[in-house]
């Protein structure tokens, strides 16, 4: 048994243990911490499978931003948890357990029944990399070969932010999302919020730029930018923009908007919807990705900031 | 040259692993939040520092080496800030949020 096998076995056992613990533990807060650790371990597994793009996304979303969303939810639920005496009865709990076990079993069977050489389009994706001028096959698939999926995924992000904003009360509609954060302006958090964002912004843009030829891309870079913005907001150095802000809304639709604009251009001047002219494929893709970087950063940060809570004086 | 580099790597990464182990034992065994934080930050700062030091001879290029060092510096910055924040909220006796 080689050292890699030992490492992988330990990692798999750790992930399974963390998953069980996250489900079994009673306090919401502990379950959230377990889930964040679980996300980071799953990211390590993706690294082991040479899927660095997926690992980056899993670490940023599953471990990072998703963890913050759940922590915020846990903090809000803390007050209600002790008063909620009502627990689901035995039948409901047994039913939920049976349903979950059936889904897990079905997934396990599906994976075990896969043909030995799983059907894959990976060689085709690598072979046609020259068509776009980008060397990272993942970016090629996301932005060119299956560009439609990515464009619609960005629309889903937009729908998610509309859903979060819809939770606002009538008075706060169009106001600033989330509570106002007050922190000591000379404190540690404000210090970090001044020191880290320049570094984080460079890293976020670098991840986007390097995504053309190496693992990385708009989503991972956007997650880094979003966390930098949130850090500044939490330290009280900046406030969230009001949801009615025209500039903010422009940024929110910039990514999918430009994507569809280029797609329609392909329909008018090229072969099909989202067909890039070969000569300009790379600049077009990088342009869309830059717009998407801003959209993703703004959307993720605002998803975490929550529904508008404070009305703006008009 | 690469032989000496390998020796540095083995010694240094082992030292890093030792500090992580000691830090984890401290995290589990120490009685209160402040001493546990002390154990944790030692593991992060020194353990990660030694691991990065040990990986430097294996770095393919100067750029990779600089990336490793900046990862360590960023972890130092984040660890120092977060431990300050946790310690402050622990001393005020409020909930850790």
UniProtKB/TrEMBL annotation, chain A:
Protein keywords: Cell membrane, Membrane, Transmembrane, Transmembrane helix
Matching Pfam families: MbhD, MnhB
Ranges where the MrpA C-terminal/MbhD domain occurs: 13-78
Main location as per UniProt: membrane
All copies of domain Na+/H+ antiporter MnhB subunit-related protein, residue ranges: 188-300
Membrane topology type: Multi-pass membrane protein
Subcellular location: Cell membrane
Transmembrane feature ranges: 6-24, 31-49, 55-74, 94-114, 151-168, 188-212, 218-238, 250-278, 284-305
GO cellular component terms, A-Z: plasma membrane
PANTHER family: NA(+)/H(+) ANTIPORTER SUBUNIT B, NA(+)_H(+) ANTIPORTER SUBUNIT B
Protein family per UniProt: Belongs to the CPA3 antiporters (TC 2.A.63) subunit B family.
Record protein name field: DUF4040 domain-containing protein
Species of the source: Bradyrhizobium cajani
Automatic annotation (TrEMBL), chain B:
A GO term, aspect molecular function: sodium:proton antiporter activity
UniProt keyword terms in alphabetical order: Membrane, Transmembrane, Transmembrane helix
Top-level taxonomy: Bacteria, Pseudomonadati, Pseudomonadota, Alphaproteobacteria, Hyphomicrobiales
Ranges annotated as spanning the membrane: 6-31, 68-87
Keyword presence, Transmembrane: yes
InterPro entries noted in UniProt: PhaG_MnhG_YufB
Protein's organism: Bradyrhizobium cajani
Name of protein: Na+/H+ antiporter subunit G
Pfam families: PhaG_MnhG_YufB
């Amino acid at each position: 048994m080689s050292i890699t096998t030992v490492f992988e076995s330990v990692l798999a056992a750790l992930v399974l243990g963390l998953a069980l613990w996250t489900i079994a533990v009673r306090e919401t807060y502990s379950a959230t911490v377990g889930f964040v650790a679980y996300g980071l371990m799953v990211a390590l597994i993706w690294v082991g499978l040479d899927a660095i793009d997926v690992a980056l996304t899993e670490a940023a979303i599953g471990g990072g931003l998703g963890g913050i969303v759940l922590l915020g939810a846990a903090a809000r639920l803390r007050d209600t948890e002790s008063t909620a005496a009502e627990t689901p009865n035995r039948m409901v709990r047994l039913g939920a357990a049976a349903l979950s076990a059936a889904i897990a079993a079905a997934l396990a069977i599906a994976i075990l029944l896969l043909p030995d050489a799983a059907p894959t389009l990976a060689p085709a994706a690598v072979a046609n990399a020259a068509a776009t001028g980008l060397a990272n096959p993942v970016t090629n698939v996301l932005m060119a070969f299956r560009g439609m999926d990515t464009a619609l995924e960005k629309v889903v992000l937009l729908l998610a932010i509309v859903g979060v904003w819809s939770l606002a009360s009538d008075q706060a509609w169009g106001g600033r999302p989330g509570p106002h954060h007050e922190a000591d302006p000379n404190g540690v958090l404000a210090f970090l919020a001044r020191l880290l964002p320049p570094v984080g912004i460079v890293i976020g843009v670098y991840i986007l730029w390097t995504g053309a030829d190496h693992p990385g891309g708009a989503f991972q870079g956007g997650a880094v930018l979003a966390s930098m913005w949130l850090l500044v907001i939490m330290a009280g150095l900046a406030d969230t923009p009001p949801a009615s802000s025209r500039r903010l809304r422009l940024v929110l639709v910039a990514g999918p908007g430009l994507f569809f604009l280029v797609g329609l251009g392909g329909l008018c001047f090229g072969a099909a919807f989202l067909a890039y002219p070969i000569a300009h494929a790379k600049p077009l893709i990088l342009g869309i990705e830059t717009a998407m970087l801003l959209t993703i950063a703004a959307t993720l940060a605002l998803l975490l900031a929550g529904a508008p809570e404070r009305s703006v004086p008009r | 040259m690469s032989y000496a580099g390998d020796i540095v790597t083995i010694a240094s990464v082992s030292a890093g692993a030792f500090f992580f182990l000691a830090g984890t034992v401290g995290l589990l065994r120490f009685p209160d939040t402040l001493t546990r934080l002390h154990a944790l930050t030692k593991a992060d700062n020194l353990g990660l520092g030694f691991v990065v030091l040990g990986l430097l001879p294996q770095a393919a290029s100067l750029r990779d080496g600089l990336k490793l060092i900046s990862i360590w510096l960023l972890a130092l910055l984040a660890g120092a800030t977060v431990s300050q924040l946790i310690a402050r909220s622990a001393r005020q006796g409020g909930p850790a949020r």
